[in-house]
Amino acid sequence: MARGLAVLEEAGSADLLPRLLDADPAGTYPTGTRPTGARPTGTDPTGTYPTGARPTGTDPTVAGPIPTRVLDTLEDAGVLRAGRFRHAAARAAVLADLDGPAHTTLHRRAAALLYSSGAPAEDVAVHLVAAEHAGESWGLDVLCRAAVTALGRDEAGRALECLRLAGLACQDDDQRATVALLRARVEWRINPGAALRHVEPLVPALLTGELPDQHAIPLVRLLLWHGREDDATAGLRQMEARRDRLDAQSLAGLDLIREYLQANHPPLSARVASFDGADGWCPKTAEPSVATTVTDGPQLPSVTTLTDVLRAGSNQDTVRTAEWVLQATPLDDMTLGSLEWALLVLVYAERADIAAPWCDQFLRDAALRRAPTWQAMLSGIRAEIAVHQGDAPAAQRHAREALTLIPAWTWGVGVGRPLSALIMASTVTGCNLVDQARDQSCDHSHDQAGDHIADQVAAPIPDAMFQTRFGLQYLYARGQQRLASGRLHAALDDLLTCGRLMTAWEIDLPSFVPWRVEAALTLARLGRAAEGRALAEEHLTRPGGARMRGMGLRALAATLEPRERPAVLLTAVDILQERGDRLQLAYALADLSDAHRRAGELTKARMITRRAVQLAQECGAEPLRLRLTDRGGEDASGYGGAVATLSAAELQVAMLAASGRTNREIAKKLYITVSTVEQHLTRAYRKLRVSGRADLPVILHV
Description:
By secondary structure, the protein is mostly helical. Helices cover 67% and strands 1% of the residues. It folds into 5 domains: 2-171, no CATH class; 193-273, no CATH class; 290-459, Alpha Horseshoe (Serine Threonine Protein Phosphatase 5, Tetratricopeptide repeat); 575-635; 645-702, Winged helix-like DNA-binding domain superfamily/Winged helix DNA-binding domain (Arc Repressor Mutant, subunit A, Orthogonal Bundle), CATH 1.10.10.
């Protein structure tokens, strides 16, 4: 009886004990497991009652309630409490005493009893796995359903146990494909690199069109992740050829992949569009509705909206759709892509302030659910968000986390995202990528972790990445790095290649990759100002918000004559300050300081430099801080911190007032109203904590 309880307790089904123990007349041992001489002398055949004491009307060969005397004995001995083992060690000891055949027999019988009684698949699967038996006609179905349930409960290990056994029970190719794709789905959550090995045997059938449609869609997506574009293309060609015969679910999946390719694999999208029968395809609307939610879930609206934003820019509708998806979508294997695309829509719509808290929330969920791949992908997205916020330290931290959670080689083509964020952030902070991985001063507490990141950075990059959106990000990041290190021609090559591809692929959105800004700055340093000016002016005509306009004006100023730069840079500073991008504001202020210095306005240049130094320090932009410090940016008086809080317009008005100009003269010089001058001065007095303009010359050193 103890053995029966121990076996059934694993699935919480001890109420089936009478039926489990009905395998032999004694009701105590399953058939063939009774030890020799197990029935005590002087007892009846059940081994429960003394000879002659069996109650009238009982039959030892008929199953009935478990005799309470036996349960009471186990309770009195301290083995059980309320019919269950008091301690796991006691149950483990009982199970360990079972030999192999007895153990297998008990679990097989328990599985059959549970299945016949309608128990949940996961309870039945516990016994099938324990018995290493899936030979029943219903075993495969039970194990697959139990695996899906276990995955839904974030028990990936248990799901893999069920699927390993299910693989042994498959009788035909369709069953083997189903189990293989399920195993790949579970493995992908833990280690994407291991997922492909389960489905590799299915690729030949995909290429010949023999793989069932419901299996072809997830296999194509996995191949795209790993950069197997030729195989994915061949599979899509087969599906497009039989588009008219696809069931509704497979057709929806094919349309989703077609839309996904436009945003993520543009060259492959063009190849698929050239297939016979594919020319008439057009994407569905991205507008959220009940119909799209029921048919496709949130995936199609997300990816369609992302494609629209990359091609034509954002508007209130695209932002609203992205927020709707984030609010309506729980995190799981099937919706992770939807959440990714919705977050990126917000980022490229210059609403990183909305995307960041959403991404942080999903990151917490992924960590609680022990899903390394989810965590890695969301960390990569969070790093990209931080780049757009001008927060280089956060971008470094999240990018390193992404590359630590899963190895770089398992990222496939998507490795371009965390690597590009890491490169751009490292360019800002001045940490060499390999050195920063090993240097504790760059926020690493363990040499082993640093070595790991160094290995990730040095890992080979898949060639297929450069045929994706992630390759564009990588080229742009590498161009920035080369520009910062003075390799101007190499930087320009990367940036112009990036721009050429973005234009050809029709995803030339500055808020995605503002390649023209860096290219214009590079051309200006090469003495090719006219070419740089053309790019900067073109950038300003592209769709984009305030941040992109501020960056574009800074690039434009670099291509102008020195006397023309201050006015353009002042406008850029005002825009970037209002937008809240401290890093880009620091760069613009540094350029404005340069412009004033060239014009001989040294006092004004010095005050602007102080403010730029403060911002650079806050942003972790160490190279910029050091460059500004060399100009004397840290020789500020005790008022330097307060002066740094003034906006560019406030500082300019205050400087003119300190030099003795009247409000009317200041207004005329700056082409603003007298009222605006008064407002700027009032705010400047409050920030500097002075009573009037008489104190300004001392504070501003005029």
